[in-house]
Amino acid sequence: MAIRILPFRQYAxxxxxxxxxxxxxxxNDNLATKGNGxxxxxxxxxxxxxxxxxxxxxxxxxxxxTDYPYVGRDYYxxxxxxxxxxxxxxxxxxxxxxxxxxxxxxxxxxxxxxxxALENQTVLSGQSVPILTRGIVTLNxxxxxxxxxxxYVNDSNWAIGNVAIISPNNDGRLSGVAPTSDRLRExxxxxxxxxxxxxxxxxxxxxxxxxxxQFAGSAGTTGAYSxxxxxxx
Length: 233
Prior knowledge:
By secondary structure, this protein is mostly beta strands. It has one helix at residues 114-119; strands spanning 5-10, 16-17, 21-22, 28-30, 42-47, 55-58, 76-79, 82-85, 94-96, 99-103, 122-123, 131-132, 134-140, 163-166, 174-177, 198-207, 222-231. 38% of the residues are buried.
């Protein structure tokens, strides 16, 4: 599953934004894909225009064949407001709580299997994805050496008390940086000029047992995870 966040988290519902869908280029193809459609990706606004209304309708290949003769054309509804994986310097909106994907692990369209999408904490392309702007979350730092499933860069700068920022080389992921004053611990920013979006509260490691672990990785490998207080307001 394309999920970078572990179950432990604390937040209030009023700090969750539910009006943005993930932009099309960031949507994962299926539940096994690891990419910008994962849950636990930090995003910024890519389209905030409401000129065509909050929801638009258009033909889509995702629906399959829609041009049968003498049959009304089907149109796919999509949320107009869009967000995408944040890059260095972006104003970060928050972190996605669900993944966005088109198909299940077998290549079957989730459009026709809404129960499975719900069970896998997944929304479809064009549907709004819940985005957490403030709270305490537990993030995955490695998965058997597979950086594709990581929410942050687990290096020497990722340490307790350091400020979390958008990783310079990895859109949607975090990096750590040492604060240079007490105010920086309150998300004002750091000496390089980028706003901090969180504080690293705790770090640790987990070891997969005799079977594979989604977050630690394959059997016998060790993975990192952290608790981070984020505030993107």
